[in-house]
Amino acid sequence: MENDKVDPKVAMNDTPNGWARNGVNGVTSVLLVVLRAIAVALAIFLLAISIPLFFLPIPLGLPLAIIGLILLAMTSKRAHTFITDWLKRHPGVWERVKHIFDRFHKD
Prior knowledge:
Order of helices and strands: HHHHH
Strand content: under 5%
Number of helices: 5
Number of strands: 0
Distance between the termini: 37 Å
Largest sheet: none
Mean pLDDT: 77
Low-confidence stretches: 6-14, 16-21
């Protein structure tokens, strides 16, 4: 069966490739749903607290908003599609984001 093979490189926003069907008594699917729900709640919380912190003289709001957006894009297909479509419409912002990620992935 092809569904028995699990790809360890599957991203959080990809389909679970049969994990929900092949999990031990549905434990894997429940764990996946719980982890996604926690990550979405954390991302929304970070975005919510980043708005008032953005106006403080200490630069905390923007980094928290970026972390919240990244976490939300990782866990929600709809948010991932919305963010990537927005970045495609604004190539200047995409180049800056890509530059930041390239800096972290240099070996």
